[in-house]
Specification:
The protein contains 10 helices and 8 strands. The longest helix has 68 residues. The radius of gyration is 43 Å and the shape is elongated.
Length: 465
């Protein structure tokens, strides 16, 4: 029973790990990253924020409704002094006032009819509720601000598009890097197997006295170098996979499988037609961003100019007020007094000591800088395209050369290997041939990687998604 349970547990763990392990072609990896990469999610959030900003700016020109509620309770009512001579029956008034203050336990007495009579106006408690509707009728800066908010949204959308190109290129580089490491390990393993076989055969020949001990030592040195390089690449393999996971936006410790080989990736990236594609600078995302930036600065200048225009707004409110010496506001006999007002407000800028003109001139200078930046970006993109085109063409040529050199180095090493075991070549000659082969193997792998990555750079320059 225990054995069956262990078997089921083992099989379940295998199935679970197989489910958790994800496989990707290059296109699948790119599609996944364009949805889940960290930079993509941040760019998407920026667009959402920009959309909210557009609405925030739009609401400035929409009706605004505000309500206020005030409650006051005078712990000590303010007293106003009135000339006693203003009243016909001063003594009666004084008696009434003194009775009032006595009732409220206030130590105050009117001694002189020729003096002042203290009076407390109003009630001790008051409630006031008001609702106000305001509407902006005309404001030039609002109209420009609304255009600026939409431009800000365009900038965020362009930034996301640029991020997509960057993420795509990062995924391609990371994918190719993993395949390069895997292929490098395979080649080193094969070289190691061949070297170990040669060393064992050489040691037997030395034991029989048909070769010098130095021949074995020379092969041992080459084998040690291969082992060191193999250990280095194996250690780097984990880092390469983690870099790939980061590019996709998944946990660095997730297990992934790359279903394409380096050779398959190479064939899909050999496209000579790309070197003949015409370049349209206006389609490039960097040019679009520079153009939007210029437009943004133009709106800033218009915004500063619009501040010299008058602003017109209207408002209407409705309020109600209740007064009482005691808190009896919600009883049926409480009287409420309504009020309402309708108004229009016109604000006309007249003189700002040339402040507005100064800000307009600053905005004009920034606009000129943005226009020069647009021109500079255009020229830089043209140069970058030519550079990317040349690099891709060079990578194709370099790959063809490396492929031919690798085949040649393999033939040379094979001949030297035969000569060595036939006793007509030295271990130094064999070692040189082997090292030459290993160098050509690395250059061949690097040429494939360069071809893949330079193609992605050229696609970015052509704005190809």
């Amino acid at each position: 029973m225990k054995i069956k349970l262990l078997i089921l547990t083992f099989l379940s763990s295998i199935v679970l790990s197989a489910q958790e392990k994800k496989s990707y072609t290059l296109d699948q990896a790119i599609d996944y990253a364009l949805e889940n990469a960290y930079a993509i999610k941040n760019a998407t959030n920026d667009i959402s924020s920009a959309e909210k900003k557009v609405w925030e700016t739009t609401t400035i020109g929409l009706p605004q409704i505000n309500a206020s509620f005030d409650y006051q309770n005078y712990l000590k009512q303010p007293v106003s002094l009135l000339p006693a001579a203003a009243f016909d029956n001063t003594e009666s008034v004084i008696d009434v006032v003194n009775d009032y203050f006595d009732a409220n336990q206030t130590n105050f007495d009117v001694e002189s009819p020729d003096g002042f009579i203290p009076l407390a106006f109003g009630t001790k408690q008051n409630i006031n509720a008001t609702v106000t509707l305001t509407q902006l009728l005309f404001d030039g800066s609002y109209l420009i601000g609304l255009q600026s908010a939409k431009t800000y949204l365009q900038i965020s959308e362009s930034a996301k598009e640029k991020t997509e190109f960057s993420v795509k290129q990062s995924v391609i580089n990371a994918y190719a890097n993993v395949l390069l490491v895997e292929e490098n390990i395979n080649i080193l393993e094969k070289n190691k197997t061949v070297l170990e076989k040669n060393l064992n055969e050489t040691l037997k020949i030395i034991e029989n006295g048909f070769a010098e001990e130095q021949d074995g030592e020379q092969l041992q040195l080459t084998l040690s170098a291969i082992n060191n390089e193999l250990n280095r690449v194996n250690r780097y393999k984990s880092t390469a996979y983690k870099m790939f996971n980061v590019a996709l936006g998944i946990d660095v410790d997730s297990e992934v499988t790359l279903t394409e080989t380096l050779e398959e990736l190479l064939l899909s990236n050999l496209n000579l037609e790309l070197t003949k594609t015409n370049f349209t600078v206006e389609n490039h995302i960097d040019y679009k961003i520079a153009e939007t930036s210029r437009k943004s600065q133009e709106l800033v200048m218009k915004y500063e100019k619009s501040k010299a225009l008058p602003t017109l707004s209207a408002f209407v409110n409705y309020g109600t007020t209740a007064n009482n010496d005691d808190f009896k506001f919600f009883k049926n006999d409480q009287k409420w007094f309504d009020s309402s007002i309708l108004g229009v407000s016109l604000n006309v800028p007249i003189f700002s000591s040339l402040k507005r003109d100064s800000r307009t001139q600053q905005a004009k200078i920034e606009l000129e800088k943005a226009e020069r930046q647009l021109t500079e970006t255009e020229q830089q993109l043209k140069v970058a395209f030519l550079d990317a085109q040349n690099n891709y063409q060079y990578s194709i040529d370099s790959y063809q050369t490396s492929k031919e050199n690798l085949a040649l180095a393999e033939r040379i090493e094979k001949k030297e290997n035969i000569k060595f075991f036939e006793g007509i070549s030295s271990s130094f000659d064999l070692s040189n041939a082997q090292n030459q082969l290993y160098t050509q193997q690395q250059e061949y792998l690097q040429s494939i990687y360069d071809l893949i990555t330079t193609k992605s750079v050229l696609e970015n320059a052509l704005n190809i998604k």
